[in-house]
Amino acid sequence: VLALLEENMRREVTALLKYAEDDAGGLMNPRYARLRPEMTVDEAIRYLRKQAQERLETIYYLYVLDKEQHLLGVLSLRELFSAAPDKKVADIMHTDIIKVPEQMDQEKLSHIFTRTNLIAVPVVDGDQKMKGIVTVDDIIDVVAEEATEDIHKAGAMEPLESPYLQSKLSEMVKKRVGWLSILFLGGMLTATAIGYFEDDLAKAVVLVLFIPLIISSGGNSGTQATTLIIRAMALEEVRLGDVWRVIRREVLVGLCLGAILAAIGFFRVLIPGIVFHSYGDHYVLLAIVVAVSLIGVVLWGTLSGSMLPFLLRRLGLDPASASAPFVATLVDVTGLLIYFTVASIIFL
Amino acid sequence: VLALLEENMRREVTALLKYAEDDAGGLMNPRYARLRPEMTVDEAIRYLRKQAQERLETIYYLYVLDKEQHLLGVLSLRELFSAAPDKKVADIMHTDIIKVPEQMDQEKLSHIFTRTNLIAVPVVDGDQKMKGIVTVDDIIDVVAEEATEDIHKAGAMEPLESPYLQSKLSEMVKKRVGWLSILFLGGMLTATAIGYFEDDLAKAVVLVLFIPLIISSGGNSGTQATTLIIRAMALEEVRLGDVWRVIRREVLVGLCLGAILAAIGFFRVLIPGIVFHSYGDHYVLLAIVVAVSLIGVVLWGTLSGSMLPFLLRRLGLDPASASAPFVATLVDVTGLLIYFTVASIIFL
């Protein structure tokens, strides 16, 4: 294929092929508008009109280069247009330039665009020589793509590479079965935990009734916390150093949420206990067990859900892997331990 | 405040204030570059240089208007620059214009940008008169914002309005307690379901061991399916009309995933049953109950997880509300019914 392209374009394509698809080098376009610092404004406009015959990516920003392609400054076409015709380019260009290295990851790059409202960013190599520009219209796809990846990971699967309806069934199973099996193996610990308390349970089968309710409350509050932190990390609103502030917030929020659910749960057991005599004679104790367990489980879920992304990032892993089901599975086991421990203290 | 602004700007701001923040009218900028159809290329460039003194949003696209502000055509500055100086603007402009009404929702608008690679899109009123332009640098924030909203909803809470660390604790509790309580109330149905089978359970407490494992497998497979469909709907990859194709895919995927988990679960019960005599004499039957239930629960989780976003959209609700915990809670109750029904047929 390369042999069929024109010489000029072939050189460009070959140069771009050496970059990874998802870094600045892979996203950049080498066709940008360039000026020399010694040109006057009038000369620059004439020179631009000549360059515009080529298929430039954008002429909104004009890059001022020296003969060795070092990036000296940048100005917008609007600034060039509104400057006095005999001024020198060097006198009106900006020299405090936002530029990125070729290896910059596309996610980092997208943060530069969301923070700055720039339409294009220049890409330079290790010697500060200009290699091309990345434009915002390519980044908008990156932002959507990165969000899709994070959402798929939050749903406990590997991100699909193609749109849902175009994905092969075998790919679909492959992307989903990995996490599902890991979670299944992790979930087996719940059987072990319950097995440990099997004798207690045989004495008070009524405790079984609230197992799913209590562990899922921990899982749900953990899901909320982990979702908040993962997204905040992706948007760089929360960094590793914020861990103590997050702990303080989540402990307080977890206590509040736990107290509210505990109140609902308490009356959920008490009222049928009084009215229908549903849970035998010890319904008041059972209501207390459920309420106390809920405070503990929700607090623990909230705290561990918010800490898991920090732990993963600290270990150099992607915090987005702390999916809702992952957190829920972790919290399920500890939730059971909390529930049975509280029950054995108060009830048995 | 309005009184302090210059007359000109005040008129602009007042005009913009009447739009909702999240539609095309609210996002647009009224400062765009305009040309008349009868101008020559040289005249147009001179006219642009004059307009560039004002603070235009972009001069990358030039909009050709008649005297009543009707949008006749558009051309890029690059095209203007590379055209012969004496050509007329009307002869080089494009007339197949992508334009949007003032009321277009920002999410729809973002899809136009992700699909087309345009840098700006013109906004017109009901009479096709041009009102302003929306530029891609505003849309990039919208894309990130919409993704955050969907991710927060997927985590079973109302989207936060401010960054995590800036949100007040009371707001944090308020955004989270609603869904948490709804899920808690829904989760109470699990207690009812287990209560219905309480006598069976008293006869075979060993069944309790696998309750969390089996219902969470349904929840996890449901989470995967609902996550995939919600994101595909947000990106307009899947529409309401695709429901049958989705059902066919998810039934096949659900059967595959269920079969794989069933195989793991079968040996998880059988091996300790043989080696440690863990589950009494009926460990083979128990292994069969676990395996058959897993196929049923995973298939059901996958199917209901994928259908829930369709149902919500059909009802005019936001499909993104089908959060992981919501699906898990729904599937928990039905998962219990499947498990106990299978157990009572095979085991009891």
Would you write up a description of this structure?
Two copies of one chain form a homodimer. The first copy, chain A, has 348 residues and is mostly helical. Chain A contains 13 helices and six strands. Chain A has helices at residues 7-17, 24-27, 41-51, 77-82, 89-92, 106-116, 136-154, 169-196, 198-203, 211-234, 243-275, 283-314, 324-346; strands at residues 32-35, 58-65, 71-76, 100-101, 120-124, 130-135. Chain A has a three-stranded mixed sheet. In chain A, strand 5 (120-124) and strand 6 form a beta hairpin. In chain A, helix 10 (211-234) packs parallel to helix 12, helix 11 packs antiparallel against helix 12 and helix 12 packs antiparallel against helix 13 (324-346). Chain A starts with 6 loop residues before the first helix and ends with a helix. Chains A and B meet through strand 2, helix 4, helix 6, helix 7 and helix 8 of A and strand 2, helix 4, helix 6, helix 7 and helix 8 of B.
